[in-house]
Q: What sequence folds into this?
C-alpha cells in the first residue's frame, strides 16, 4: 500500500485495459511511471459466501465468476454477464476491480454488480471502508491510484436475476446496450449499460417495469447522451426497452 | 516496478530456459519477437482484440500483447515454434489439409487458442474458444473444420 501512495504509481492487475492505455499513450496515463502489481494480494482473491451475500475479491476474473458454482446459484445474472463480457483469453485476465475502475459505458460485469446492490470494500490510509459502488460510476476521467484500492465487492444474493446484452456479434463484442434486472426483497432493480458514460441504476425504469407500464418515457428521462458513435439514441432506447423486458421476464421466472 | 527499470526475467520458452533483460513495460509478444526472434507470434492490433499474439503461458492460451514479460518470470511459454517438432503437429497439418488459412497471419494464434480443446469438442466449443481470434480472410468455416479434424487426428495419434 505504501507503493500505491506514491504519486506516479498505478494499480496493476489484469492489465487488459491499463496496458492498452499505456501502449496508446492515452492522456490520463501521462502521470504514471510505476505499476504496482497486486496479483499476490490474498485479501483481494476468491469468492466467499456470507449469510445473505457474496464477497468477491477484486482480483477475481470474469472467467472465475462465470464458472463459479456459488455465483451461478446465488447471483446468476453476474455469472451470465461475466460469461459474455469478453473473449476467453481476456476473461481469464480481466478482474472485477479493474472492471469497476475502468470507465467503459457498458461494462457488463459492472452493470450486473449495480443491480445486485454491490458495495465496494476500499482500503485507504490503512483503513477499510464500505462504499456504494455508484461512487465509482460517476465520471469518465480516471487517475493513477493515489493510495486507494478496491479490495473486494459484496453483492446481495439474489436468485431472481437475469442479464441481457446486445452487441454486433454473439462472441466477444462490447455491448451497445446491456441490462440487468434483479428482484430484491420484492423490489425490481434495473441497471443499464450503454445509455450513459457509465452503467447506472435506473430507478424510474425499474418502477415502470415493476408495474408493467411502458418503459420508453422512463428510459428517455434516465438516459444521458451523448454516446460513443456506435449507435444512435433511438436505437439504444429500443434495445434497452427490449432487453429490460426480456431480463425481467427471465428474472421473475428463475 | 517503475516502467523504465531494467529487469532480469528467467522463463522457459518452448522447453528451453532463457534469461532476458527487459524494461518493465515490455510486453511478452515484443520480447518473444524482438529479443528471442520467435516471429511466429504475430502482433496484429496490440490491444487485445485480434488474438494473433496468442501463446501458451503454463499451458493456458494468453494474449502476448496484454502481458508484461516481467510477469512471466519463472513461467513456461509455448509459441507456435514450440508446437511442432520435426513434423507439423496434428492441428497444423489439419490447417494445411483443410485449407484453414489464406494469408496465415491469424493461424499461430488460432492453433494455440484451440490447443487446449478436448478431442471431441463440438463446433460450439471450438467457436467459443476462438471468440477472441479474428481472421479477415476465410470466414471461419474452414478454420473450424481444420480444428475439428486436427483435434481428432491428434487424439488418434496419441492412442496409437
A:
Amino acid at each position: 500500500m505504501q507503493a500505491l501512495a506514491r504519486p506516479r504509481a498505478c494499480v496493476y492487475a489484469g492489465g487488459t485495459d491499463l496496458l492498452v492505455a499505456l501502449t496508446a499513450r492515452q492522456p490520463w496515463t501521462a502521470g504514471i511511471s510505476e505499476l504496482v502489481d497486486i496479483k499476490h494480494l490474498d485479501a483481494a482473491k476468491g469468492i466467499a459466501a456470507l449469510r445473505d451475500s457474496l464477497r468477491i475479491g477484486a482480483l477475481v476474473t470474469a472467467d472465475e465468476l462465470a464458472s463459479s458454482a456459488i455465483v451461478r446459484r446465488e447471483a446468476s445474472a453476474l455469472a451470465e454477464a461475466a460469461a459474455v463480457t469478453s473473449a476467453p483469453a481476456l476473461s481469464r485476465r480481466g478482474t472485477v476491480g479493474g472492471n469497476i475502475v475502468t470507465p467503459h459505458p457498458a461494462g457488463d460485469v459492472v452493470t450486473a454488480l449495480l443491480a445486485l446492490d454491490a458495495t465496494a470494500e476500499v482500503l485507504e490510509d490503512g483503513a477499510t471502508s464500505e462504499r456504494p459502488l455508484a461512487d465509482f460510476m460517476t465520471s469518465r476521467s480516471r487517475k493513477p491510484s493515489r493510495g486507494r484500492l478496491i479490495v473486494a465487492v459484496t453483492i446481495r444474493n439474489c436468485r431472481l436475476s437475469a442479464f441481457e446484452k446486445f452487441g454486433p456479434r454473439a462472441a466477444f463484442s462490447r455491448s451497445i446496450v446491456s441490462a440487468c434486472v434483479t428482484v430484491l426483497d420484492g423490489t425490481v432493480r434495473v441497471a443499464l449499460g450503454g445509455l450513459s458514460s457509465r452503467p447506472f441504476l435506473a430507478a424510474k425504469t425499474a418502477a415502470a417495469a415493476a408495474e408493467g407500464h411502458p418503459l420508453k418515457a422512463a428510459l428517455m428521462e434516465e438516459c444521458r447522451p451523448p454516446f460513443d458513435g456506435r449507435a444512435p439514441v433511438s436505437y439504444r432506447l429500443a434495445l434497452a426497452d427490449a432487453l429490460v423486458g426480456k431480463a425481467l421476464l427471465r428474472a421473475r421466472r428463475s | 516496478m517503475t516502467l523504465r527499470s531494467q529487469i532480469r526475467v528467467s522463463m522457459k520458452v518452448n522447453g528451453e530456459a532463457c534469461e532476458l533483460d527487459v524494461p518493465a513495460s515490455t510486453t511478452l509478444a515484443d520480447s518473444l519477437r524482438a529479443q528471442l526472434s520467435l516471429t511466429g507470434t504475430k502482433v496484429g492490433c496490440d490491444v487485445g482484440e485480434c488474438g494473433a499474439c496468442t501463446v501458451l503461458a503454463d499451458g493456458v492460451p494468453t494474449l502476448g500483447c496484454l502481458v508484461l514479460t516481467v510477469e512471466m518470470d519463472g513461467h513456461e511459454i509455448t509459441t507456435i515454434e514450440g508446437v511442432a517438432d520435426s513434423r507439423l503437429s496434428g492441428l497444423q497439418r489439419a490447417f494445411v489439409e483443410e485449407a484453414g488459412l489464406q494469408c496465415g497471419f491469424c493461424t499461430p494464434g488460432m492453433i494455440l487458442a484451440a490447443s487446449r480443446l478436448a478431442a471431441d469438442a463440438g463446433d460450439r466449443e471450438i467457436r467459443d474458444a476462438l471468440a477472441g481470434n479474428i481472421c479477415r480472410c476465410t470466414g471461419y468455416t474452414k478454420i473450424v473444420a481444420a480444428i475439428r479434424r486436427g483435434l481428432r487426428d491428434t487424439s488418434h495419434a496419441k492412442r496409437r
About this structure: Chain B has a mean pLDDT of 94.
